[in-house]
Design goal:
Radius of gyration of chain B: 23 Å
CATH topology of the largest domain in chain B: D-Maltodextrin-Binding Protein, domain 2
Number of domains of chain B: 2
Order of helices and strands of chain A: HHHHHHHHHHHHHHH
Number of helices of chain B: 19
Distance between the termini of chain A: 42 Å
Largest interface: A-B, 34 and 37 residues
Structural class of chain B: alpha/beta
Distance between the termini of chain B: 70 Å
CATH superfamily of the largest domain in chain A: MetI-like
Strand content of chain A: under 5%
CATH class of the largest domain in chain A: Mainly Alpha
CATH architecture of the largest domain in chain B: 3-Layer(aba) Sandwich
Helix content of chain B: 40-55%
Largest sheet of chain A: none
Helix content of chain A: over 70%
Oligomer: heterodimer
Radius of gyration of chain A: 28 Å
Amino acid sequence: MEKPRRGLAVLGFSLLLLLSAAVLYGGFALLRSLSGSKIPAALLAVVWGIGSVVLLYYVLNRGAEMLPRRARRYLLPLVFAGPALALLFWFLVLPTLRTLWLAFFDETSTRFLFLRNFRFAFTDPIMLEGFRNNLLWMVFGTLFCVGLGLVIAVLADRSRWEKLYKAVIFMPMAISFVGAGVIWKFVYSYKGEAAGLQEIGLLNAVAVALGGRAQPWLLLGGWNNLLLIAIMVWLQTGYAMVILSSAIKAVPKELLEAARMDGAGELRIFTGVTIPSIRGTLLTVTTTIVIFSLKLFDIVRVMTGGNWGTNVIANEFYMQQFTYGQTGRASAIAIVLLLAVIPVMVYNLRRFGESRAFK
Amino acid sequence: MRPRIIAVLSLAILAAGLVALGADPLSDAYAGKLKGTVVTMSGPFTDNDAVKFNESVREFEARTGIDIQYEGSKEFEASISIRINGGNPPDVVDFPQPGLLSNFVKTGKAIDLSKVLDMAKVKANYIQSWLDMGTMRGPQGPIVAGIWARVNVKGIVWYNKKAFDAAGYKVPGTWAQLTGLMNQIRKDGDAPWAIGIESGAATGWTATDWTEQMMLRTTSLANYDKWVAGQLKFDSPEVRRAIQQWSQIWFGEGNVYGGRAAVATTSFGDAPKVLFEDPPKAWLHDQGNFIVSFFPDGLIPGEDFDFFNLPAVNSTYGAPLLVAGDIYAMFRDRPEVRAVMQYFTSAESLKTWVQSGGALAPQKDARLEWYTNPIDRRLGELLKNAKAVRFDGSDLMPGAVGAGSFWKEMTAYVSGTHTLDQAVKAIDASWPK
């Protein structure tokens, strides 16, 4: 009795496999033919898209379950993780490899230049300016975000109004970088000097109220970078604060009590007990913000477009690719940026590994 | 015998006519043979422009049954490269910068229009300058890469007519008169000019327009063409002189409302608003005719505001017109796409847009009576009667210069971060080799 039933099951499964292949391809073909009529196409895309994912998992799972127990052990994880891995390979690994490939060619991707694009990426004055500014973003942006986040988290922890403080600091997180750029454009606005001219910028209002003169803030070499970094600090401090705050709350009360018993002052407890206990979280937050500041783009794009010495690498990459059509150079810059981020990523993943987030 | 010859001749003529008719892709469309087909189009028209574009092709769509689907995007320049290089181009692409189109012509992506359109008709309907500017070099030599649709006139000087007349100022016809007018306005306690070059990531383009106007007024057209093609360096006496010519106006004490630093921080669209305050804070604004849509609402063209062409600096060179516009190129070849492209070469395709304001038609069959407001009509006239027309140079230069270093270095020069010397050398260095 065993054998024929098994044969039947295999036959059924093969039919199912054929059917799902037909559904997958048929939906695709139908969708392509519908390109003229948008609403039916959108509806079909939703139904077919979600439906075929469900179908695919169901069919593959069914197939894997029919296999002998030992094979199943190895195949089942593949059934569930496989499609995601395949997509990741297709959409992430392949494009990365292609970018690397294109980085050795000219703007038409036909003439082999070898390392000339990389020489550009490391020697052109505009790129050097970008490296300098990214370094500024990385150092000052991260320092202020994490530093302020930590200080606020510690202070708020002891306040009656903790929830209110944290909500206010956290609120800018909800604003997109581009939106923040628009808001801060008004803060830094400068109208010039003429009879009867009314400044509308917040910072200039403060400067004038304090007896100073209105300044074209975004034009001030050196300062303008810090003024742009202030925007990121405004946006990201909330993130650092929330994560660090939860870590601080997780520090065992007994530990703090013990330190107090031993006669340590509050500052000593902070540096000697709290900081070591939240070291892991602190590092994670720091690396996340470092990565953030390395690939920073939106603020500079919206506020200055990279003018007046504020260019960053990501913006130069965008300009090279989309405005200048220099695919080779843009790819080289993208690779450089990737290489700059990788060490931080690896460090972060290692820490995740230690904390068994992946096990 | 005779009648037979006439009959034969007329038959022959008829046959020739039919053959010629067959060559015109439009005839099939008007005969309704292409009913139900779709032509996709991409370009930078959004909001109001998109509405006016759709309005202007509606009659054609109704007559032929071809549906022209225009997809406008503000990030057009970025998205179009992805679509074309990814092998998924729309049928027709509307380029506001011919320089960008020439990139795709160079890689052989654009279709040679001389092979698919009735070129006799096209040639008869444009002056030579436009045809020249639509011809670009492909991998197999020069091709007709695009046809010109909506165009606009750049670099004309706008003023608040009522206040201007009330103050007793006169429209200057020469450079000396312009200088005299500027002195007079300064003496009266105002700033002559309102200038702003801020434009987000495109900050600086207004300064490049001024450079082009001054190039046209202080050196020969041949030099202008050489400069645009990269044969005359920025670091040359001609280009330096042109930049210095506008610098004298821009950097002169009290010449610009808000002062030099404010030029870099004032948005190009906000700059002219001070002309229409009561009393005006500044009196003159140099910009393309599109700027009218940035003027305060409710102003009557020709009564509340008017324009004059920036006077000649040197009578040898005169005051050639600086223009810009949209060039349509074809990326997929189907009968309905041919028909639509052929249709775009007639002024008919812009008629309602011209009538509702905001567009000038470069085609010869455009009629001056279509222009409903006096400003547009005078612009149309200016365009029709122009002795010399030159296209916005920065739009013709390679993107790395025309949409990159030229903007950026002029911005740095205006805000004082770079000297003229540093700026022109940096632009030359960025020119792709």
